[in-house]
Specification:
The chain is of the alpha/beta class. Helix content is 43%, strand content 18%. The chain has an 8-stranded parallel β-barrel with strand order 1-2-6-7-8-9-10-11, surrounded by 6 helices.
């Protein structure tokens, strides 16, 4: 009798435990199904410099992006008077206009970490041997002649292909014609249209061969349906430059594909919460 009672009590306890486990699994599944998976990618704006005391667009800033395992690192490209492709944001370096100076004239000066003005070839070679961090190459619009647009686009694509980096290089540009030239020349690398505002129809960009849009933060804030409209026709969405935590959260909740930021470590922390 005592053994039978103990067996009955154990059986009831076992049933309670099993039912509790089933309930907990059910709750976990419900939470998992309702949780919006965050697939937004982090792009370091001009490399990872702000949080690591490195110069913008320096090779050191790219190395930091790779070290952090970021999804991408953006940088800007100009062409010197003697057709050397260099990495710099502004059209001037050391108070000299890049397009009207030779590389030898510019190489007299250093970045704040004592690097020389990086040649694009050296910069790209830093990304060789890894495939985690995309190299987001922005071709700056030439200011001295229209003809240089096609030439600089061609030189960039040729160099990328020469180094065998088509799979990790992506292009962005403000100039529509430069974008079209890259699309014509490249077979693998995506090309996104940069803009301060939406000045072209999304469908026109898609039909022209652009893979995505890359607009200023204000553009998306003023047109809150832009992300969904772009995604609906297969355009990837990127925003720049998002440095405020509240803005990061806003764009994450909107489900944007990529966020370009000067503070990639902060964005990474926000996404991991």
């Amino acid at each position: 009798m005592i053994m039978s009672l103990k067996y009955s009590q154990l059986n009831k306890a076992g049933m309670i435990i099993r039912r509790t486990c089933v309930l907990l699994i059910f709750i976990w599944v419900c939470i998992s199904c309702n949780r919006k998976e965050n697939s937004t990618k982090i792009i370091a704006h001009r490399g990872t410099w702000d949080e690591h005391n490195a110069p913008e667009n320096s090779i050191a800033s790219l190395k930091e992006s790779i070290k952090l395992g970021l999804d991408g690192s953006e940088f800007d490209v100009w062409m010197t008077k003697d057709s050397v492709l260099v990495v710099n944001h502004a059209p001037e370096f050391a108070e000299k206009y890049i397009e009207t100076a030779t590389y030898e004239e510019l190489a007299v000066y250093n970045l704040s970490n004592l690097e020389k003005l990086p040649k694009l070839e050296d910069y790209l070679k830093t990304g060789v041997g890894q495939n985690r961090t995309k190299l987001v190459l922005e071709i700056k619009t030439p200011k001295i002649s229209h003809e240089r647009k096609g030439f600089i686009a061609q030189r960039c694509v040729e160099l990328v292909e020469q180094l065998g980096l088509e799979d990790i290089v992506e292009y962005i540009c403000f100039d529509f014609d430069i974008g079209l030239k890259i699309i014509e020349l490249t077979k693998k690398s995506p090309v996104s249209y940069l803009g301060w505002k939406l000045d072209r129809e999304l469908l026109d960009l898609k039909n022209a061969g652009f893979s995505g849009i890359d607009f200023h933060i204000k553009t998306y804030k003023e047109d809150t349906a832009l992300i969904d409209r772009a995604k609906a026709i297969g355009l990837e969405t990127n925003v720049w430059t998002v440095n405020d935590e509240a803005d990061m959260i806003w764009f994450l909740e909107k489900g944007i594909d990529l966020i370009t930021t000067d503070k990639p470590a902060l964005l990474k922390e926000v996404m991991q919460r």
